[in-house]
What we know:
By secondary structure, this protein is mainly beta.
Amino acid sequence: MAVQRERPYVQFNFVVNLNDGNERVPVGGFQEVSNVGMEVTVAEYRNGNSRENSVQKITGLNKATDVTMKRGVIGSLNLYEWLHAIRNGDQAAYKDVTIELWDESHGQAVQTWRLKRARIIKHVSGPFNAKGTDVAMEELTLAYERLEME
């Protein structure tokens, strides 16, 4: 699915699918998605009788970073319902969340990130300020077990 070209794609055309049954009709778009990533740890090891005076790097565990997503408050309770299921121990509530970067014409997805077995670990609303003019926001942090890219 990844579409390669010389000029980089802009970052502001993206769709987040929370796998809630609305594939192309998101319940409230997200303003920002940050920290999508992964890390493979390494363990350093050296035999005591090794002739080389250096350590070996042994591939360790895969770690996925926590992803933070922000959207304006739109009166939808879908994120709260998902969080409610997770905090009540419903393992079926883990979802595969998809983030798609689109081309400028919104005609096709050019890169996709899949967050496998994602769950909400933090939800924050606000701040609220009676003198402010900003949009009321909610922030969601997801933990997931594996990142796949297409």
